[in-house]
Records
---
Amino acid sequence: MLAVCERQRRLFGVLAWALFAAVLPAPAWAESVTVHIDQAQLLKVPDRVATVVIGNPMIADATLQSGGILVVTGKGYGATNLMALDRDGRVILSDSVQVLGPSGPDLVVIYKGDARESYSCAPQCQPRTTLGDSTAYFNGTLAQTGSRSAQSHAGGGGSAAR
């Protein structure tokens, strides 16, 4: 009889803990973080977060700032996961990150057969480097941007008083 009472008490304890865990509030964290490619989004995370891990850094990047601010940047199309750990390596947050294509009222996409070109049109249209554009267009736009950047650094990057 004593053994039956002991088993019932243990079962009651297990059920009580299961019920308690079921009604605990979930962490204050979105079901999924959505960010557009080449854009950043700020998220508030608990101050005790010490490390942030991104499953696929080719899709997204995350940088932890002081004050519990997490900067998530879309780098490539697709989905990956994000985990935030405390100093003891315990997972505080675990969620998915969805990176969507570019958007906005100034984005114009032109299709020439199967070749794609993207432009930022605000107010005049200028080429923009966007993943998914045709290789020749993408590389040409990227080369111009890189050349311009190199020229600005070679010249000192600013105006000098003479």
Note: The chain has two domains: 27-100, 107-152.
---
Amino acid sequence: MCRMIGITNFDYADSEHKELMANFFLLGEKGKTLAEDSSGHLDGWGVGYYKEGKAFVRKSAGSIVAEKNRYFKILEKIGKSPVLIAHFRKSAWPDTNTVANSHPFEHKNILFAHNGTIYDYEKLIGQIEHKDRLAHKVLDSEMFARFIVTRRTGNLKKKLSQAISVIRENNKYSSLNCLLTDGKNLYAYREYTKNPEYYTLFSARSGKSKIYSSEEVSEKLDWEIFPPRHTVSG
């Protein structure tokens, strides 16, 4: 249960992009949460980006609010990226605040972020080749990422569709909302089984950039909410 944003043709020197990331930062403390949950998305955070075609991730197990200065320094240092994904985590799993469990995840040069919970995610592990498994305990979101990336056929969008079809048929989940990119294309998907007012995903355009976000983070842009079971690429 998290907040996430993806931006194509990211340029932190662009005043609008800088404002988007500043507004997104506010969701760490003030973003929507479920009625039964405490406020804030403070269980780790991360930023994923590309340089010369290679994916990089900067992550923390700490509170995004407490580490505000580090967050903005990372964005400033990144400068430009063909695609950028940022994520603030609110964990569904107790005592799992680690760097490894923070999003986004990188595997085979693909970046992935998720908002939701796959409750019986262990069912997926047998369908992931041994060489693509990890030594540390992998939670649902990272399992979801590897399950997509290691599909054997099709482009990234088709791999996402195949993985979702299997999970929909075999697993119990709250939401499969996710962002996925190979550094050239950014895919966004929305699906939920409950709480549609929380498991939201919006899209907007700013110049040459497409933005996907859990919440509308700028009053200057025209946002459209994703219909359920809908994939968009930018």
Note: The first helix runs from residue 15 to 30.
---
Amino acid sequence: MRFHGHVRPALPGLAFFEFALHAPPDDVERLNAWATAASLPHLPGAQEAMLNLAAWIGAFVERRQGAPAYGDVIDGIMTAQIEGRPITTEEVVGTIHLLILGGLETTAGVLGMSMVRMCQAPQIAARLRTSPGLIPGAVEEFLRLDGSLACIARTVRTDTDLRGHHVGAGEQVLVYWASANRDHQEFPEPDRFVLDRARNRHLAFGAGPHRCAGSNLARMNLRIAYEELLRRLDDLQLQDGADVAYHCGFNRAPLSVPITFRATSGAPPR
């Protein structure tokens, strides 16, 4: 018997709330909706979503200020110093805002993109089922080819010549991580998914001082998700006539992945 379903991963958001924020898990769904809307400024409702997100963060910070310290990243932000002075409340809210935008959509995006890939290339899932030891390496290859951070904006601080192109101080540039992850000088057969790729220095988490602070949590989320999905679901296919729509902007992610599958003996009772 085949079953139908939509992949809208809640796992990354729940794990992020529990391990990074120590925030109420009941708030994940609405915060995820606000974060998604806020990251699409060209659509109606984006400004309202941004304000709602900021209001939630402000209330969350107030609660944390009166609570015992967890020793987590939020405590680190709230007690940080910037160039020798204490961080301001506005800076705390802004930093946590960036943390939430970077933590909710990104891992879910990779998981959704990789599900589409496994439906289109069933040999990937088949090999991972027979050789689960390859899953950690597969996580890196999914991150390389299906990473959700497509690009990021940066402001040029000094006049620069880049391969014959002049970029003036104050101008903005878009850095395309997705393009770097298909650099043929770094990755042999860059457009092919290679489960056991020996060298995989991808930039899915960025690089330098702005490298993703949650990269290890993201890797753990993805590894566990693939282990459980492949143990419980077999014969993954996109539903007939499925038209997968994608989030656009700095992040790329399917809005939902309609699939059919056969439940395996490893699946929990329905």
Note: The CA atoms of residues 22 and 66 lie 14 Å apart.
---
Amino acid sequence: MKTMLVALVPVLTLSIAAAAYSQPTAHNAVRDYPNRPVRAIVPSVPGGGGDLSARIFASGLSDAFNMPFVIDNRGGAGGTLGTHIAAMALPDGYTVLMGNIASHGINPALFKDLPYHPIRDYAPVSLFGTTPNALVVHPSVPANTLKELIAYSKANPNALRYGSSGVGGSPHLSMELLKTMTGMEMQHVPYKGAGAVLTDLLGGRVQVLSSSLPSQLAYIKSGKLRALAVTSKTRNAQTPDVPTVIEAGVPGYEVIIWYAMFVPAKVPKPIIAKLNATIVQVMAKPEMKARLAQAGIDAATSTPEELAAWVKVEVEKWTRVVKQANVVPEL
């Protein structure tokens, strides 16, 4: 028996060594990442600013890694559905979330019982874009400036209807913030998605909208909608003649729509670092900046730590707005 065990030792040693050699090491996993397509979940339906920015961004990552980053639109429940799906994914770096102001800024402030935690369940990777909302009106509205719109709404309380993509979304809360700061009086008409509200706005069934610039840019440039202001601190290059809300007479008003990549919380840090470094390289390319700028989006990057801090600031801001406007969420 002893002789048999001694004879088996070299065989067992070789077998163990071969097995160890065949298993991918953590170093190899990072070095080879990604070696298959990556699913990029967008927590909204196709057609909005979040979808457009994610598609441009994903194409840049696909080129940089020479591997597809495949967009997977998972809209529903105000963006919570797709965001939750991403949190539950295998933490191997092959599912990423194209998060935004709604998924990690507004929804945590709006809903008490979210199926995910914006900080505990995700690892932040980097910002990849920012854009303002554009405050637009149907051409039939007798207002060519924001001051005129404010005056008209006060003189004709609730005569105007403003649309939104749903209760608690950025279009809704940005208008409620503006109403709180100016005393405007308008009726809120919530829709299920950005496409539906734009259709009714173009048809004049609602008259006012504050929504992401990329989703409205073509209509502004064609004259089908009249832009009165953008919600950022500075003007946007695609609409240089449109003043900011601050310039239009509402000091202190600012709403920035932001887009960022997150991954499930337990994704290895070396993969996060590799993603972040590649994002910084991709977003620095003139052609990527130009593609985003043409859509009304400013390229942006951050460290994971900066993004984590930004999420906390946004949640605090929108918690105050939700409370002040007494917004009751719908899920």
Note: Residues 304-325 form the longest helix (22 residues).
